[in-house]
Amino acid sequence: MRIDKFIGNNTDLSRTQIHAAMKRGEVKCNGERVSKTNASMQPDDIIELDNTVIKPLNIRYLMLHKPAGYVCANSDSEHPTVLDLLDLPHKHNLQIAGRLDLDTTGLVLLTDDGQWNHRVTAPRKACTKRYRLITADPIGEDIAAAFAAGVLLHGEQKPTLPALLRLTGSHQALLEIQEGKYHQVKRMFAAVGNRVISLHRESIGSIELDSELEPGKYRPLTPSEIASFCG
Ligand code: URA
Description:
This protein has helices spanning about 5-10, 15-25, 115-120, 145-150, 185-190, 225, and strands spanning about 25-30, 30-35, 45-50, 50-55, 60-65, 95, 105-110, 130-135, 165-170, 170-175, 195-205, 205-210, 220. By secondary structure, the chain is α+β, with helices and mostly antiparallel strands.
């Protein structure tokens, strides 16, 4: 990691203030002055600013019940972001482990731990996400078989990975997918001539959205929820 990013993540200083401190010789890595603003560090290196060791802030793991109308991004010029729902310091350090569309509701995971985020979101891990959805038109009986076989999404070269569709009504279903392509669920239904009009994420891997969490509320993950992505 770059030293300026490490200091930025763990203090209130801006990038400009950090670079100025580096140029003034106030930043040290393992006791050696670092003046190059793009210098990097190893995870165990000791970084000092003005002779004070910078301690990494606690790493956080959160689940949020995302309401509609919030963007899964760090900033947005048009809409509030999921970070606006958090009353936490240094919340811009948090990474969103699997984004939802503006109008999609449900489970969003956030963390400062980049490696954990990678384990949740890396396509190679094929982590299962379960969605509850409502469609504009009735869902044909043959659609479950089509999704199990994989459908070709508009603009893609390869079909989707096998997905599990369980009908819960003529226009309602639960869908489990192992990928996280852009607008994936909406595009899967578009590929079979239907349209998703309501989408809610219930789970990611074995982490279920807590039924006690009202829309807009969040809580820390439990140790076993965190550990479920540490295998
Ligand atoms: N698939 C979508 O189409 N939208 C989402 O927000 C999540 C999955």
